[in-house]
Amino acid sequence: MLDLDPARDGPPPREAATLVLVRDSERGLELFCVERNKKSRFLGGAIVFPGGRVEDDDRGDAWKPFVTQDDELRAFGVAACRETLEEAALLLADSPTPDAEVLALRERLAADPSALRAYLSEHGKRLALGALVPLARWITPKVESRRFDARFFVARAPDGQRGAHDMTETMASFWDAPRAILDRFDRGEIQLAPPTHRTLEILAECKDVAAALATARAACLDPVCPELVQQGDTMALVLPGDPQHSVKDVRVPGRTRYVLRETLWRPEDAP
Questions:
Q1: 214 and 232 together in one domain
Q2: What's the rounded Cα separation, in Å, for the pair 121 and 130?
Q3: Are residues 158 and 263 part of one domain?
Q4: Domain range enclosing 196
Q5: 4 located within any domain
Q6: Domain count of the fold of the chain
Q7: DSSP string, 53-97
Q8: 126 & 145 share domain
Q9: Shared domain check, 162 and 150
Q10: Alpha helices, DSSP H, located in the chain
Q11: pLDDT band for position 118 (50/70/90)?
């Protein structure tokens, strides 16, 4: 799932954005996940939240009329919304959008990169960037072959949209409670990268959408860049605040390292 080489000094990270869409249900908080194509070079087969890299077009001033908020995170917000539309058929706009329209728009976007702005213009809509609440900033370890500086956002899911994987980048999709997803990981049924696992742990403490958004508003946004260390006969990715990490202050709550146990990165405290 990860391509780590202790001797590697990887490339500079590319900016990326991830969107954690949450909704209230009878059993409490649920969120939307997708399974990445097993053939993907990065996190192939893992359960993730929709997201991807920030493209040059996401930074352009052409987006200014089509967003509800214009600040230093605009390009990340645009990328999060665009990638979520591409991978999950969910559109976070400032007015309701029927599910059928979202699916049709995704098909248009696959053929024409400007289709999202054209659709927003045609329907008098804007991307609801003001609804995206930053939760965390994760940077891929330096020893990884492909590196990203990813901003994680939380937002309330749009009403009336079910979501659907694209059968290209994502091969399955589902809504589920954070704790249920973590239980599947604990049983060895699914793969979770450390940032996804930690996000699920944090949101598992939230009973509803309001609590999830409040948690995001209170979160530390300093960058979290795991560092690879040897632990006995295996490897560990240590987080800021771990005794073996170069940054001594804690930046994300929970256990301070992920240790490779067989094929899964398991959360543990420092020995």
A1: no
A2: 18
A3: no
A4: 14-224
A5: no
A6: 2
A7: EPPGGGGSGGGGGGBS--STTHHHHHHHHHHHHHHH----BSS--
A8: yes
A9: yes
A10: 74-88, 99-111, 115-123, 178-186, 194-203, 209-217
A11: very high
33 and 158 within one domain: yes
Q: What dihedral angle (degrees, nearest 10) is formed by the CA atoms of 153, 241, 149, 190?
A: -70
**pLDDT of 30-43, one tens digit each?**
999 999 998 887 78
Tell me, what DSSP letter sits at residue 244? T
**In a shared domain, residues 107 and 188:** yes
Residue 8 has pLDDT above 90, yes or no: no
Distance of CA 255 to the CA centre of its chain: 20
Whether the per-residue pLDDT at 200 is higher than 90: the answer is yes
Task: Quote the mean pLDDT of the chain.
Answer: 96
Instruction: Output the pLDDT for position 41.
Output: 75
Contact 81, 66 (CB under 8 A): no
Place of tokens 């979290």: 224
Residue 7: inside a domain, yes or no? no
What percent of the chain lies above the pLDDT cut of 70? 100
Confidence of residue 9 (pLDDT cuts 50, 70, 90): confident
DSSP state of 144: B
Compute φ and ψ for 230, nearest 5 degrees.
Answer: -85, 135
pLDDT band at 5 (very low <50, low <70, confident <90, very high): confident
CATH of the domain at 19: 3.90.79.10
Residue 36, number of CB atoms within 10 A of its CB: 22
**pTM strictly above 0.90:** yes
For residue 253, being part of any structural domain is answered with yes
Q: Of all residues in the chain, what percent carry a pLDDT higher than 90?
A: 92
